Amino acid sequence: MPGFSEANELSAWTELTKHHEKLSKDIVLRKYFKDDPKRFQKFSHVFKNEADGKEILFDFSKNFLTDETLELLIKLAKEAKLEELRDAMFKGEKINFTENRAVLHIALRNTENCPIEVDGKSVVEGVNEVLQHMKEFTEEVRSGKWTGYTGKKIKTIINIGIGGSDL
Asked: How far apart, in Å, are the Cα atoms of 36 and each of 1, 66, 68, 112?
């Protein structure tokens, strides 16, 4: 997996840090927009969700970002082998090196049931079973059919999430 334990060990991170130190003291976004009337078009992108056809706008134009910043961020992504890790994630490889397991965020959002295997076994069916169970459970809680230990309808739910884990 990655050849580093923390991103700040990478040389591209050091370059980005120096760039930030140099740039951040004097950046005035109003001036950046005045100097570059196409700043919004340059630093924003609309992504279309193929599952439901909706669009989401990613607008970075109002961040402390320049062409050089973007180049350094891309350099950092390449040095961190982000594309390789992304591809490994989609293949079900065990890229979570701290727990030696696959990262299956994609399986939860696999609306088209594309094949996803871990150790040569499909995980799609198991994920779909859990998602279906979650749907049934939440519908029962919302309707009042599922009650608390007192037999009363559940009105408050507290969810504690740490990283990818929920308690």
From this structure: 40, 11, 14, 41
